[in-house]
Write a structure and sequence with these properties.
6 strands; four-stranded parallel beta sheet; 171 residues; 16% strand
């Protein structure tokens, strides 16, 4: 079942007919409509989907199919995307390939590196000179918010935060 922490959105999902639950366009429309009517979000709200860490739900092909289906239905702008650079590693997808495929839909970027192997992956700070990040940033939209989604150095928290924010602003 589809569930959410937002009652207005959950009510919209609950009102979908059984056949519509498999239809990404109907789901996207229901979520976008509910978000735009929410009393908790004055004005127009924007619904973004994020790639997560579960390969079963977050394969690149599913995101491409979702955005293609929305475009085919004449509603290409109903949803946008939060592109989590590190999460692609959990699903076995190449972040650079995902950036090429999804860049036009990206409205928010979660920035993190990944260390470890197999089921023992952990978020980490990317190296400032990591060429994969500069390649990904060159493809993704420049003027969208970017979020630090990795631990900062607790011993020099203020300096590390300043350095990382400057890195993201310049990337």
């Amino acid at each position: 079942p589809l569930t959410t922490d937002y009652p207005v959105v959950q009510a919209a999902l609950d009102n979908l007919q059984p056949g519509q639950l498999e239809d990404g366009t109907a789901i996207g429309t229901a979520i976008a409509t509910a978000a735009n009517r929410s009393k908790d979000a004055p004005g127009r709200s924007r619904v973004l989907v994020e790639n997560g860490q579960r390969a079963i739900d977050d394969a690149l092909e599913r995101f491409v199919a979702l955005f293609d289906a929305l475009a085919a239905e004449g509603a290409p702008d109903i949803l946008g995307m939060t592109f989590d650079i590190g999460n692609w590693h959990w699903t076995g997808e190449a972040p650079l390939a995902a950036a090429h495929a999804l860049a036009e839909h990206v409205e928010y970027i979660h920035c993190k590196g990944v260390k470890g192997r197999g089921p023992r992956l952990f978020a980490c700070a990317p190296a400032a000179d990591d060429p994969s990040f500069s390649s990904i940033f060159a493809i993704l939209p420049r003027r969208v918010p970017r979020a630090i989604e990795f631990p900062l150095d607790e011993q020099g928290l203020t300096d590390d935060a300043r350095r990382r924010v400057a890195w993201l602003a310049a990337a």
